[in-house]
Each structure stands twice: as structure tokens, then as C-alpha cells.
């Protein structure tokens, strides 16, 4: 990780402060930006999300799907955790903490929206940052690449049904037209554009893709931070009035990260997978595609909603929490391999 990525949490905190301050100083300007919508999609945020997502999706090589069979046990564990455990465990945790335990401490009119945001956050597996986490655990690169490609392919068809199902179970009204529009705007179209750009660069010359990705990296991070400034400017009054909300929303996110990463790690050990597969499997199973989650929450519930705020809390804690999981995976390698040899 470069210096910027290593201290991403610091930049996120600074953007939160800047957003709240700017929203307080220039409320009319940000109200105008918040109202710049087409079909319930906020245009400034949509453009920034594309700037975030497309460079990340250009790293994904869907031809790696042919390597899935080489790591079928690790793939199976990660898919099980990503799609059969994580969204449902987050729905349970959101209901338990936000809907029950923390209810007296949260704004009553935003409870359902917070729960919806947490569900959306957990329904999309991470894409880009997984490569960083895998590298830090000396993960098997072909496994990581094939798993990311497979998750992205599944996400195209599974994200909307899972979100719709869980929002329905949580008694949140599902605007299906907006949800499907979000899938098209923030998954299908970016995947098509990213893969078309990837193919064109690969055909252009050797090294063209890597040079382009290196150049797009700062643009992607800048778009992420600009999105956060907008989000917190839109919600500045709510944050100033309820500073405790962010800390409370972080609790179920933290629990689900450690629960799902630990589950994936132990299941890989039980299945007899090597540590360099179990490590990235645990990290893929725990992290979230927060760029997609933020965009979907805004489209579904609005830029000033509790759902948008809940997804942004995921961004705030993503880097430090995932680095702690990396530390645990690396420090436990001897135990992991000793346990495998003993069995």
C-alpha cells in the first residue's frame, strides 16, 4: 500500500470534517447539488462513483474464471460466506443492534433506513481492495483473481434479489425500479465499460494497461474522497445533532467483519486449503464493495438518508479493520499450518 492508501482512514476523517463544515457554511449550494437528480439518481454522486468503480473493475480479468477449478475448496468457502452468510448475518446484526439494542439512542425516523444501509453494505463483496489485502497476506494471486472475477459475475445477477429479499424481511419498502436501475448503473454498465477499456489497452501495447491503471489510481481515490465530502455535506445537520450515530452504526459492521473472516478462515482450514488461499478467502469474505453500496443507498433512499450514512460508516472503518484481519491471518500462519499437519 502506498502512503495515501495506508492512511486512507485519516483522509476519510478529514473529508467528513470538511463535508460537515462546508454543508454548514454553504447549505443552499449543497441543497442544489442534492436536488440534481434524474430518475431518483443523484447525478454528481453517480459521476463520482463511476470514476471510483471503473478503474477498479479494469483490474478484473474475467478469463481467470477458467482457474476456478484449481482452488475449488477455497472458492466454495468464499462463495458460501459471501452470498449465504454475510448479507443474512448483517441483517440479523442490524436488527439486533440498530432495531433493538440501540433504538433508544438513534433517531426514530431513521431506524429502518440505517438497517437498510447496513444490509446494502454487506450484500456486495469487495473487488479492488481485495488485491491489496491478498498481497499483504502473501495470498495465492490466481485464487484471488479468479475469486474476484467470479464474485463480480455473480453480483450482476444476485445483488438486487438479495437486497430486495432482505429489505423485505426487514419490513423496508423496496423500490424495485430504482434498485434495478442502480444495478444497471453501478454494476452492469461499469463492468462493460471497464472490460472494453481493458481489452483496448491490452491490444494497444505491452504495459499499456498497467500504465493506465497507475494513472487512474489517484483519480479513483480522489473521486472516493469527493463523494464523502458531498455525502457529509448533505447530512451535516444530522451528524452535528447526532454524533453518536456513527459509533453505534460501526458496532454491527465490526462484528460482521470479524465473524465472517473468522468463519471463512476456519472453514478453509477444515477443508484442507493452504494458508495462501485461506488468507485471501477470509479477507474476501469479510470486506465490502463500499463504492457500490454508497451509490445504491443514495439511489434507493436519497443522499440525506440514514442508509447513505450507514454505508459511509463502512468506508470509515474498512481500512483499519481489514488491516487488523491481515495481521491476525499473518500471525496465525504457524498455528494454521500446524493444525493442518496434525489433521
Number of structurally distinct domains = 1
Helix content: over 70%
Structural class: mainly alpha
Separation, N- and C-terminal Cα atoms = 36 Å
Series of secondary-structure elements, N-terminal to C-terminal: HHHEEHHHHHHHHHHHHH
Radius of gyration: 19 Å
Shape: globular
Tally of separate helices: 16
Q: Which CATH class is shown?
A: Mainly Alpha
CATH topology: Na+/H+ antiporter like fold
CATH architecture assignment name = Up-down Bundle
Strand content: under 5%
Low-confidence stretches: none
Largest sheet: 2 strands, antiparallel
The number of distinct β-strands equals 2
List the strand order in the largest sheet: 1-2
Average predicted local confidence, pLDDT: 83
What does this protein look like?
This protein is mainly α. The protein has a single domain (7-342), classed as Na+/H+ antiporter like fold (Up-down Bundle). The chain is built from 16 helices and two strands. Strands 1-2 form a two-stranded antiparallel ribbon. Helix 2 crosses helix 10 (208-234), helix 5 packs parallel to helix 8 (141-169) and helix 12 crosses helix 15 (306-331). The chain is globular and about 55 Å long. The mean pLDDT is 83.
Amino acid at each position: 500500500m502506498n502512503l495515501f492508501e495506508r492512511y486512507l482512514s485519516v483522509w476519510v476523517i478529514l473529508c467528513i470534517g470538511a463535508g460537515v463544515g462546508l454543508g454548514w457554511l454553504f447549505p443552499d449550494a449543497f441543497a442544489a447539488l442534492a436536488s440534481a437528480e434524474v430518475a431518483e439518481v443523484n447525478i454528481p454522486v453517480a459521476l463520482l462513483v463511476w470514476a471510483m468503480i471503473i478503474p477498479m473493475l479494469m483490474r478484473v480479468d474475467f478469463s481467470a474464471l477458467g482457474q476456478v477449478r484449481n482452488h475449488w475448496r477455497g472458492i466454495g468457502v468464499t462463495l458460501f460466506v459471501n452470498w449465504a452468510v454475510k448479507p443474512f448475518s448483517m441483517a440479523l446484526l442490524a436488527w439486533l443492534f440498530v432495531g433493538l439494542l440501540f433504538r433508544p439512542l438513534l433517531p426514530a425516523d431513521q431506524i429502518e433506513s440505517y438497517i437498510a444501509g447496513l444490509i446494502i453494505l454487506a450484500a456486495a463483496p469487495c473487488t479492488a481492495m481485495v488485491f491489496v489485502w491478498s498481497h499483504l497476506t502473501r495470498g495465492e494471486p490466481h485464487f484471488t483473481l479468479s475469486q474476484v472475477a467470479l464474485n463480480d459475475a455473480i453480483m450482476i445477477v444476485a445483488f438486487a434479489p438479495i437486497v430486495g429479499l432482505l429489505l423485505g424481511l426487514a419490513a423496508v419498502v423496496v423500490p424495485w425500479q430504482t434498485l434495478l436501475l442502480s444495478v444497471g448503473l453501478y454494476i452492469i454498465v461499469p463492468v462493460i465499460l471497464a472490460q472494453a477499456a481493458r481489452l483496448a489497452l491490452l491490444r494497444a501495447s505491452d504495459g499499456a494497461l498497467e500504465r493506465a491503471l497507475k494513472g487512474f489510481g489517484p483519480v479513483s481515490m480522489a473521486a472516493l474522497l469527493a463523494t464523502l465530502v458531498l455525502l457529509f455535506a448533505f447530512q451535516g445537520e444530522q451528524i452535528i445533532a447526532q454524533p453518536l450515530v456513527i459509533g453505534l452504526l460501526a458496532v454491527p459492521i465490526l462484528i460482521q467483519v470479524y465473524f465472517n473472516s473468522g468463519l471463512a478462515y476456519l472453514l478453509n482450514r477444515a477443508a484442507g486449503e493452504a494458508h495462501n488461499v485461506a488468507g485471501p478467502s477470509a479477507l474476501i469474505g469479510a470486506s465490502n464493495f463500499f463504492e457500490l453500496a454508497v451509490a445504491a443507498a443514495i439511489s434507493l433512499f436519497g443522499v440525506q438518508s440514514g442508509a447513505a450514512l450507514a454505508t459511509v460508516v463502512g468506508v470509515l472503518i474498512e481500512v483499519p479493520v481489514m488491516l487488523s484481519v491481515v495481521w491476525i491471518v499473518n500471525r496465525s500462519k504457524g498455528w494454521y499450518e500446524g493444525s493442518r499437519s496434525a489433521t
